[in-house]
Amino acid sequence: MALLDPVKNIVILMMENRSFDHMLGYLSVGPGGRADVDGLNGTQAWLDGHANLDHGSAVTPFHSTNPYTMPASFDPPHERPNVAANLGGLNDPPYPMNGFVGSIPDKVSTDPAVRMLTMSYFGNQEVPINDFFASNFLICDRWFSSLPAGTQPNRLMAMGGQSMIDLNCNVLPTQDLVYDWLTRQGVSWRVYHQGIPFFTMMPKWIPDILGSDKFRSFDDLEDDLMNNPPEDLPQVIFIEPTYGDAPHIGPSTDDHAPAGVADGQEFLMQAYNAVISNNRFWRGCVFVVDYDEHGGFFDHVSPPKQVTTAPVGASYPDFRSLGVRTPGYVISPFVKNGTVSRATLDHTSVLKLIGEKFGPDSSYSEPVDSREVESLSAVLSFDAPINVPPAPPSVLPYLALRTAPPTLTQPPQTTPLTQGFASAVDQLRAGGAGPDHPKFGDLITQMNAAAAGGAT
């Protein structure tokens, strides 16, 4: 597609489990709020109109001033049945969006002060990098997760355009991913991962994750971008945070509750600094930041209708709509600074962009092409490129208020995701990852020490 000729490299970073209103809804609040953003409204009448009931008590959206911690128990379930309860119905949309608090199982918490956190939202002081992106680049306030379901189905949609599952599971079924598609088209790609890559849970990728240059440490990203000409760099780059559900060293940076979001803000800043470190790379780059799904957090906009049927070989009831609205940022010279797109998008909108740029006949696949969402190319503008990217704000005082995390975290294997990541570590070990492995050696060493009683 000639329109996309200026785009040379596409960078994709997917975070975890936050809704649009929770992370960006503040932009429209108050006398100085942005009228162009469909976010929250601070008037009492609006708040009362969007209250959720919890055991008979009305809970309205409220401003949280703590981006650093959440109660250890606070991780609202967000599998397919839980999301249906969040939406307030199973029929076709529009949905009342009134089940976010009341549907939290008592086993998560019976404390009203904890349960109400699902109705919280941050402001610019709590999410300074979000605010920087929103002020200087483009946000999408009609970006929805692809399915009203959990992490794995949505990441499979984002990375393949279809999902063989509608519920999280331990070992991901083998299915075609965008990695396979890019390889078939002769398009270069690479994953830069801070912790264990997500698709370690799909065993076919273990050999590449362990030994291929297709999977490199996030620590290498800035040096690689800074010291190589754009034409020698991968045409499509995927960046992955440290997942809180996986065994990991140091903080998790994916924003998955019950972790706070400060570590994720630092990670986003680091990724942005890497992308702008080489101005030649920046001038041809589209950097996309999105979230896989809402994680149980409130959003007031009903997802639109989108029927998604199970692909051949899978079996689950049709989905009737997109999932809950999530934050979406397009950080690029090819957007108008400080703007909002109202295009209806989901995770497959990125695949549509990739298909238009690199695919035969500007197509990714029939299932992706047929989805009633726009391509991410719809938000791009080539008239007045932002050739000099702005520097992010200093966040040192903000980050200084964090509590140091444990050296090693091994989440209890109480959910399919935590079980899946634990199994993935076993697969890495079986594939040859030991204490001397260049990417996973430190983690394996500390896990060995913990198992022997020498670490906490």
Give a structural overview.
This protein is an alpha/beta fold. It has one domain: Alkaline Phosphatase, subunit A (3-Layer(aba) Sandwich). It has an eight-stranded mixed beta sheet, sandwiched between helices. The mean pLDDT is about 95.
Secondary-structure blueprint of this entry?
Layout (H helix, E strand, L loop, with lengths): L8 E7 L4 H5 L19 H6 L2 E3 L2 E3 L2 E2 L16 H8 L24 H4 L4 E2 L6 H9 L1 E3 L10 H10 L17 H8 L3 E5 L12 H6 L3 E3 L3 H6 L9 E5 L7 E2 L12 H14 L3 H4 L2 E7 L13 E4 L10 E3 L6 E4 L7 E3 L6 H11 L7 H4 L26 H4 L8 E2 L6 H15 L10 H11 L5
Parallel strand pairs: 1-9, 1-11, 4-5, 6-15, 7-8, 7-9
Antiparallel strand pairs: 2-3, 6-14, 10-16, 11-14, 12-13
Taking the alpha carbons of the first and last residues, their distance comes to 54 Å
Q: How many β-strand stretches?
A: 16
Query: What is the CATH T-level topology?
Result: Alkaline Phosphatase, subunit A
Main β-sheet description: 8 strands, mixed
Shape type? globular
**Cα radius of gyration in angstroms:** 21 Å
Strand order of the largest sheet: 8-7-9-1-11-14-6-15
Shape-level CATH architecture: 3-Layer(aba) Sandwich
Provide the domain count. Answer: 1
What is the chains' assembly state?
single chain
Low-confidence regions? none
Query: What's the CATH C level?
Result: Alpha Beta
Overall structural class, as computed from helix and strand content, comes to alpha/beta
> Would you tell me the overall average pLDDT?
96
The number of helical elements comes to: 16
Helix content: 25-40%
Which superfamily, in CATH terms, is the homologous superfamily? Alkaline Phosphatase, subunit A
Sheet-strand content, in percent, reads 5-15%
